[in-house]
Amino acid sequence: MCIRDRSLGGARPWLRELLQTLEEWKRVNRIDEVAIFTSASNLDGWVTFLEECIEDYAGTADLFGRCITRERCPLAPTGFGGTRTFKDLSLISENAESVVLLDDKPDFVRNGYVIGVPEYRQDVAIDALERHMKSLLPQFEDDISQVFAVDRCNHPPNQLDFSKDDVLRKAVQVLTGLFPEADEDMSVLAACSSDADWPPSPIVECC
Protein backbone atom coordinates (compact mmCIF):
# COMPACT_ATOMS: atom_id res chain seq x y z
CA MET A 1 0.00 0.00 0.00
CA CYS A 2 1.72 3.16 -1.21
CA ILE A 3 1.15 6.82 -0.38
CA ARG A 4 -1.61 8.32 -2.49
CA ASP A 5 -3.30 10.96 -0.34
CA ARG A 6 -1.02 13.57 1.23
CA SER A 7 -3.86 14.71 3.49
CA LEU A 8 -3.40 11.49 5.48
CA GLY A 9 0.04 12.70 6.54
CA GLY A 10 2.15 9.94 5.03
CA ALA A 11 4.04 12.36 2.79
CA ARG A 12 5.49 15.65 3.95
CA PRO A 13 3.89 18.73 2.31
CA TRP A 14 5.77 19.80 -0.82
CA LEU A 15 7.45 16.40 -1.26
CA ARG A 16 5.77 15.82 -4.61
CA GLU A 17 6.80 19.24 -5.89
CA LEU A 18 10.37 18.76 -4.68
CA LEU A 19 10.78 15.43 -6.44
CA GLN A 20 9.16 16.67 -9.65
CA THR A 21 11.54 19.63 -9.64
CA LEU A 22 14.52 17.32 -9.20
CA GLU A 23 13.23 15.08 -11.99
CA GLU A 24 13.10 18.05 -14.36
CA TRP A 25 16.59 19.20 -13.32
CA LYS A 26 17.89 15.72 -13.97
CA ARG A 27 16.22 15.66 -17.40
CA VAL A 28 17.95 18.89 -18.48
CA ASN A 29 21.28 17.84 -16.91
CA ARG A 30 21.13 20.51 -14.23
CA ILE A 31 21.92 17.72 -11.75
CA ASP A 32 23.42 14.30 -12.39
CA GLU A 33 21.62 12.08 -9.92
CA VAL A 34 19.02 11.88 -7.18
CA ALA A 35 19.92 9.31 -4.53
CA ILE A 36 18.62 8.06 -1.20
CA PHE A 37 20.97 8.09 1.79
CA THR A 38 19.43 6.79 5.00
CA SER A 39 20.48 5.28 8.31
CA ALA A 40 17.53 2.89 8.08
CA SER A 41 18.23 -0.76 7.37
CA ASN A 42 17.19 -2.34 4.09
CA LEU A 43 17.82 -5.94 5.12
CA ASP A 44 14.11 -6.69 4.83
CA GLY A 45 13.56 -4.48 1.75
CA TRP A 46 11.83 -1.72 3.75
CA VAL A 47 13.77 1.16 2.18
CA THR A 48 13.28 -0.25 -1.32
CA PHE A 49 9.53 -0.43 -0.66
CA LEU A 50 9.44 3.19 0.52
CA GLU A 51 11.46 4.28 -2.52
CA GLU A 52 8.88 2.73 -4.82
CA CYS A 53 6.02 4.29 -2.85
CA ILE A 54 7.58 7.77 -3.01
CA GLU A 55 8.20 7.55 -6.76
CA ASP A 56 4.64 6.34 -7.29
CA TYR A 57 3.23 9.15 -5.14
CA ALA A 58 5.21 11.87 -6.93
CA GLY A 59 4.80 10.39 -10.42
CA THR A 60 8.58 10.31 -10.85
CA ALA A 61 9.28 6.73 -11.89
CA ASP A 62 12.96 5.71 -11.77
CA LEU A 63 13.97 9.07 -10.29
CA PHE A 64 16.29 7.61 -7.68
CA GLY A 65 19.65 6.19 -8.64
CA ARG A 66 21.73 4.77 -5.82
CA CYS A 67 20.23 3.91 -2.45
CA ILE A 68 22.70 3.86 0.45
CA THR A 69 21.34 2.40 3.68
CA ARG A 70 22.58 1.56 7.18
CA GLU A 71 24.46 -1.45 5.88
CA ARG A 72 26.91 0.86 4.09
CA CYS A 73 27.04 3.70 6.66
CA PRO A 74 30.26 3.94 8.69
CA LEU A 75 30.11 3.90 12.49
CA ALA A 76 31.81 6.59 14.53
CA PRO A 77 32.07 7.17 18.29
CA THR A 78 29.77 9.67 19.96
CA GLY A 79 30.54 11.93 22.87
CA PHE A 80 28.52 9.67 25.16
CA GLY A 81 30.67 6.55 24.85
CA GLY A 82 28.54 4.92 22.16
CA THR A 83 28.58 4.75 18.37
CA ARG A 84 26.22 5.87 15.65
CA THR A 85 26.05 5.87 11.89
CA PHE A 86 27.46 8.78 9.90
CA LYS A 87 26.47 9.61 6.35
CA ASP A 88 29.67 9.84 4.31
CA LEU A 89 28.74 11.71 1.13
CA SER A 90 32.01 10.68 -0.51
CA LEU A 91 30.16 7.42 -1.18
CA ILE A 92 28.11 9.46 -3.67
CA SER A 93 30.92 11.62 -5.06
CA GLU A 94 34.52 12.32 -4.14
CA ASN A 95 33.88 15.99 -4.97
CA ALA A 96 32.32 17.35 -1.77
CA GLU A 97 31.12 20.51 -3.55
CA SER A 98 28.90 18.50 -5.86
CA VAL A 99 26.81 16.67 -3.25
CA VAL A 100 23.93 18.11 -1.22
CA LEU A 101 21.86 16.10 1.25
CA LEU A 102 18.53 17.01 2.84
CA ASP A 103 18.59 15.55 6.35
CA ASP A 104 17.01 16.02 9.77
CA LYS A 105 20.30 15.21 11.55
CA PRO A 106 22.81 17.39 9.70
CA ASP A 107 25.48 17.08 12.39
CA PHE A 108 26.05 13.46 11.40
CA VAL A 109 26.85 14.11 7.73
CA ARG A 110 30.39 14.24 6.38
CA ASN A 111 32.16 15.25 3.14
CA GLY A 112 29.49 17.32 1.45
CA TYR A 113 26.81 19.92 1.97
CA VAL A 114 23.65 19.28 3.96
CA ILE A 115 20.40 21.21 4.16
CA GLY A 116 19.13 20.68 7.68
CA VAL A 117 15.37 20.17 7.96
CA PRO A 118 13.31 19.52 11.11
CA GLU A 119 12.15 15.97 11.74
CA TYR A 120 8.75 15.19 10.21
CA ARG A 121 6.57 13.75 12.96
CA GLN A 122 3.06 13.95 11.56
CA ASP A 123 0.72 11.27 12.89
CA VAL A 124 -0.59 9.02 10.14
CA ALA A 125 -4.03 7.45 10.45
CA ILE A 126 -3.70 3.67 10.24
CA ASP A 127 -7.36 2.66 10.47
CA ALA A 128 -7.67 2.33 6.69
CA LEU A 129 -4.54 0.18 6.56
CA GLU A 130 -5.89 -2.08 9.29
CA ARG A 131 -9.18 -2.55 7.43
CA HIS A 132 -7.36 -3.21 4.17
CA MET A 133 -5.13 -5.85 5.71
CA LYS A 134 -8.10 -7.59 7.30
CA SER A 135 -9.92 -7.67 3.99
CA LEU A 136 -6.91 -9.26 2.32
CA LEU A 137 -6.11 -11.67 5.16
CA PRO A 138 -9.40 -12.44 6.93
CA GLN A 139 -7.93 -15.60 8.48
CA PHE A 140 -5.51 -13.39 10.45
CA GLU A 141 -8.05 -10.76 11.54
CA ASP A 142 -7.48 -11.29 15.27
CA ASP A 143 -3.69 -11.19 14.87
CA ILE A 144 -3.90 -7.99 12.86
CA SER A 145 -6.13 -6.36 15.50
CA GLN A 146 -3.64 -7.29 18.21
CA VAL A 147 -0.66 -5.89 16.29
CA PHE A 148 -2.40 -2.59 15.61
CA ALA A 149 -3.58 -2.33 19.22
CA VAL A 150 0.00 -2.71 20.44
CA ASP A 151 1.18 -0.09 17.92
CA ARG A 152 -1.44 2.42 19.14
CA CYS A 153 -0.34 1.79 22.71
CA ASN A 154 3.37 2.19 21.94
CA HIS A 155 2.91 5.21 19.65
CA PRO A 156 0.03 7.36 20.91
CA PRO A 157 -0.93 10.41 18.80
CA ASN A 158 1.37 13.39 19.36
CA GLN A 159 -1.23 15.96 18.27
CA LEU A 160 1.29 17.70 16.02
CA ASP A 161 -0.04 19.30 12.83
CA PHE A 162 2.35 19.56 9.87
CA SER A 163 -0.31 20.49 7.31
CA LYS A 164 1.19 23.99 6.92
CA ASP A 165 4.78 22.76 6.88
CA ASP A 166 6.73 24.36 4.00
CA VAL A 167 10.29 23.23 4.77
CA LEU A 168 10.63 21.36 1.48
CA ARG A 169 9.43 24.40 -0.47
CA LYS A 170 12.21 26.40 1.18
CA ALA A 171 14.64 23.60 0.43
CA VAL A 172 13.86 23.93 -3.28
CA GLN A 173 14.72 27.62 -3.05
CA VAL A 174 18.08 26.79 -1.47
CA LEU A 175 18.77 24.08 -4.04
CA THR A 176 17.98 26.51 -6.84
CA GLY A 177 20.90 28.62 -5.70
CA LEU A 178 23.20 25.67 -5.06
CA PHE A 179 22.56 24.17 -8.50
CA PRO A 180 22.19 27.15 -10.86
CA GLU A 181 21.22 26.98 -14.52
CA ALA A 182 23.83 25.39 -16.76
CA ASP A 183 24.87 28.74 -18.27
CA GLU A 184 25.80 30.07 -14.84
CA ASP A 185 29.33 29.03 -13.89
CA MET A 186 29.00 28.75 -10.12
CA SER A 187 30.04 25.97 -7.78
CA VAL A 188 28.14 25.02 -4.63
CA LEU A 189 30.78 26.72 -2.51
CA ALA A 190 30.57 29.91 -4.55
CA ALA A 191 26.78 29.87 -4.35
CA CYS A 192 26.86 29.53 -0.58
CA SER A 193 29.42 32.29 -0.20
CA SER A 194 27.76 34.72 -2.58
CA ASP A 195 24.59 35.26 -0.54
CA ALA A 196 24.77 37.02 2.82
CA ASP A 197 21.86 34.92 4.07
CA TRP A 198 23.78 31.68 3.44
CA PRO A 199 26.79 31.11 5.74
CA PRO A 200 29.80 29.62 3.91
CA SER A 201 29.32 26.39 5.81
CA PRO A 202 28.66 22.76 4.85
CA ILE A 203 25.34 23.01 6.74
CA VAL A 204 22.45 25.19 5.59
CA GLU A 205 19.53 25.19 8.01
CA CYS A 206 16.14 25.22 6.32
CA CYS A 207 13.31 25.56 8.84
How is this structure best summarized?
The protein has 207 residues and is α/β, with parallel strands linked by helices.
Architecture overview:
The protein has about 210 residues and is α/β, with parallel strands linked by helices. It has helices spanning about 15-25, 45-60, 125-135, 140-155, 165-180, 190-195; strands at about 35, 65-70, 75, 85, 85-90, 100-105, 110, 115, 205. The strands form 4 sheets. Strands 6-8-9 form a 3-stranded parallel beta sheet, with helices on one face. Strands 1-2 form a two-stranded parallel ribbon. The protein is globular and about 60 Å long.
Please give the structural blueprint:
Blueprint: H1 15-27, E1 34-37, H2 46-58, E2 64-68, E3 75-77, E4 83-85, E5 87-88, E6 100-103, E7 109-110, E8 113-116, H3 127-136, H4 141-154, H5 167-178, H6 188-194, E9 203-205
Parallel strand pairs: 1-2, 5-7, 6-8, 8-9
Antiparallel strand pairs: 3-4
Give me some keywords for this one.
207 residues; 3-stranded parallel sheet; two-stranded parallel ribbon; 14% strand
Helical stretch count?
A: 6
Question: Order of helices and strands, N to C?
Answer: HEHEEEEEEEHHHHE
- From the N-terminal CA to the C-terminal CA, the straight-line distance is 30 Å
Helix content: 25-40%
- Globular, elongated, flat, extended or rod-shaped: what is the shape? globular
Give the integer mean of the pLDDT values. Answer: 84
Computed CA radius of gyration, to the nearest angstrom: 19 Å
Instruction: State the strand order across the main sheet.
Output: 6-8-9
Largest sheet geometry = 3 strands, parallel
Quaternary organisation:
single chain
Number of strands: 9
pLDDT under 50 segments (min length 5)?
185-200
Beta-strand content: 5-15%
Which structural category fits the helices and strands?
Answer: alpha/beta
